[in-house]
Amino acid sequence: MSESKAEVPARAGGELIEYVASSLLPTRHGDFRIHVYRAVGETVEHTVLVKGDLNGRENVLVRVHSECLTGDVFGSMRCDCGEQLDAAMAMINEAGAGAIVYLRGHEGRGIGLANKIRAYQLQDQGRDTVEANVDLGLPVDTRDYQAAAQILHHMGVTSICLITNNPAKMAKLEESGLRVAERIPVLIERTPHNTAYLRTKQEKLGHMLDFE
Length: 212
Ligand SMILES: Nc1nc2c(ncn2[C@@H]2O[C@H](COP(=O)(O)OP(=O)(O)OP(=O)(O)O)[C@@H](O)[C@H]2O)c(=O)[nH]1
Ligand SMILES: [Zn+2]
Fold this sequence. Notes:
Layout: E1 17-27, E2 30-39, E3 45-51, E4 60-66, H1 69-73, H2 81-95, E5 98-103, H3 113-124, H4 129-135, H5 146-154, E6 159-163, H6 167-175, E7 179-184, H7 195-205
Parallel strand pairs: 4-5, 4-6, 6-7
Antiparallel strand pairs: 1-2, 2-3, 3-5
This protein binds guanosine-5'-triphosphate and zinc ion.
The site of guanosine-5'-triphosphate (GTP) has 22 residues, from helix 2, helix 3, helix 4 and helix 7.
């Protein structure tokens, strides 16, 4: 299948990430292209789903999504990740242009899958999502967004409208040199499984949710 030049990123030079490969990816949320970037000197492979030609575009609709195996793959209802990913893909498909930057290595807000499940064990015993990390002697959130900013720069995106409820994510992307023009909320329906978790995210992590 032929590809337009703008859709095939060249290798990034002197950066944290390097471009590896790209192909078409039809999904239940429409047709995307998938690009894979490798974190230089690491084994982590970041993925970007792209709709449309974003080269040189401003105010591009973007979701920067932290990997969550339990939510994204298994449909866990403990968190809102899987539904946020679905919603963001649907929004970008509807808009006809945009990107999902899917960050590996962000699992558990940076503590990894095994530690996240250790934290879930503590949450099963009544601790909240923040207290559980602290009890384990682990940081609450170690994620950085430099790779995401560099990937978007590399794709020729000049500014973004970020699909998120987390103002800290906007600030960290801006600190990494990417202009965030606007925040687009992505609110997931509350259930008995996620209500306490979402409330803690609002109260302790600063997420803009709609609890009174
Ligand atoms: N340590 C820990 N990580 C969690 C927990 N629940 C979800 N995560 C991880 O949190 C990350 C997503 O972060 P969130 O705080 O849900 O949301 P965000 O990315 O900061 O903000 P949004 O853009 O609004 O989704 C994923 O990597 C999940 O694996 C938990 O209870 N404990
Ligand atoms: Zn999750």
